[in-house]
């Protein structure tokens, strides 16, 4: 595996960082955060779309820029460093599913506007009784008058309240050869769609989504025929792995930002006539945090490389996501301790990364869930 980025990818990362330094400050992060903000930043969103962030990873044949998964990971890492709103993650998730399963008509209807920054989207999959097992989902789609009628409830739907459409994962009422699984694009303003905001530690946008006899046209189901069944399920799982791996490098970007800020603070803060960063005990803490982040970063690139090469990556993704989640959370805990009283004052920005660390760890499977998955895999 080659973990070194190319010169072009390094330049892409630097350009992305410079863009965010100009366009997105910690004051903007505070302004966008709930409960006072909407959780979304329209001006930044259009700048990211203009810079090609939303179209980078899609092939030119569908109107994208033809970049690789590694290219996408480079900008996602910078998004994590700068705490870009999570609408980026949820919209990319929806876009990848559209690309994997959409017909040409569906790509024109939803994916191309998404790549231009004209459409926000998210994915609703978790249910109270089945977070990661589509076979146990209770949300049900039934054929009705040439279209579909959907009923059910989803929880922890990211950014649903600001998204234009939600891709809902459903069981499908058995009809002849229909395999019983489907993904449906549901407009947020469709009659019967109800949202209830959920309070979260990370102050991110999470909603409970209720679908009460929501009527959809025949083109709302992604794919057609066999594409709506076992193949759709395998592609759904593949995209889930991609999103988990991308989230791992997003967390690495955030963790590195915490380490960089803490290093600057330790160099500027003096005690007993010298920078507190010169004390050996402080250096031990920083070294432990840096080693954990570097190890998680290598695991993240390993998972992404295997996914980009169409190699099995279930184990590597689990290692990447669990190690990045722990490294990010532990880096913020160490930083709060080393900052002393300032680390616990909301006037400082450190808590912004701490909140994101907790929220990102839970997204697309928590560290604990992936560790258990690894244990089950190896019968530990």
From TrEMBL:
CDD domains: ACAD. Keywords: FAD, Flavoprotein, Oxidoreductase, Plasmid. Coiled coil: none annotated. One of its GO terms (molecular function) is flavin adenine dinucleotide binding. Residues 245-377 form the Acyl-CoA dehydrogenase/oxidase C-terminal domain. Its cofactor is FAD. Residues 123-214 form the Acyl-CoA oxidase/dehydrogenase middle domain. Gene3D superfamilies: Acyl-CoA dehydrogenase/oxidase, N-terminal domain, Butyryl-CoA Dehydrogenase, subunit A, domain 2, Butyryl-CoA Dehydrogenase, subunit A, domain 3. Residues 7-118 form the Acyl-CoA dehydrogenase/oxidase N-terminal domain. It comes from the Bacteria. Belongs to the acyl-CoA dehydrogenase family. This is Acyl-CoA dehydrogenase. It comes from Rhodococcus oxybenzonivorans.
């Amino acid at each position: 595996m080659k973990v070194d980025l190319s010169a072009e990818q390094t330049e892409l990362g630097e350009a992305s960082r410079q863009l965010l330094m100009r366009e997105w400050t910690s004051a903007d992060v505070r302004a966008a955060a709930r409960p006072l903000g909407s959780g979304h930043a329209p001006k930044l969103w259009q700048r990211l779309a203009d810079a090609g962030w939303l179209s980078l990873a899609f092939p030119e044949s569908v109107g994208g820029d033809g970049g690789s998964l590694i290219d996408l990971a480079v900008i996602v890492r910078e998004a994590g460093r700068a705490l870009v709103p999570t609408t980026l993650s949820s919209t990319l998730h929806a876009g990848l599913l559209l690309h994997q399963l959409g017909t040409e008509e569906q790509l024109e209807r939803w994916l191309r506007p998404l790549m231009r920054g004209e459409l926000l989207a998210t994915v609703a999959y978790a249910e109270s009784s089945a977070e990661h097992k589509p076979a146990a989902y209770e949300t049900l789609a039934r054929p009705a008058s040439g279209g579909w009628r959907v009923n059910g409830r989803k929880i922890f739907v990211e950014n649903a309240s600001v998204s234009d459409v939600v891709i809902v994962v459903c069981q499908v009422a058995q009809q002849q050869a229909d395999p019983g699984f489907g993904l449906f694009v549901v407009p947020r303003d469709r009659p019967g769609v109800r949202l209830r905001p959920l309070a979260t530690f990370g102050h991110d946008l999470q909603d409970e989504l209720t679908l009460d006899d929501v009527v959809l046209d025949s083109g709302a189901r992604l794919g057609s025929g066999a594409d709506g069944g076992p193949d759709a399920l395998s592609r759904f799982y593949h995209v889930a792995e991609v999103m988990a791996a991308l989230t791992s490098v997003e967390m690495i970007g955030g963790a590195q930002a915490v380490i960089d800020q803490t290093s600057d603070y330790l160099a500027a803060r003096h005690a007993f006539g010298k920078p507190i960063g010169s004390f050996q005990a402080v250096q031990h803490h920083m070294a432990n945090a840096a080693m954990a982040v570097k190890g998680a970063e290598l695991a993240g690139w390993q998972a992404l490389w295997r996914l980009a090469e169409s190699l099995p990556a279930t184990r590597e993704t689990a290692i990447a996501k669990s190690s990045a989640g722990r490294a990010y959370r532990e880096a913020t805990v160490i930083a709060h301790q080393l900052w002393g009283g300032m680390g616990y004052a909301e006037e400082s920005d450190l808590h912004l990364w701490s909140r994101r660390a907790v929220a990102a760890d839970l997204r697309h499977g928590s560290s604990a869930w992936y560790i258990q998955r690894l244990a089950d895999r190896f019968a530990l």
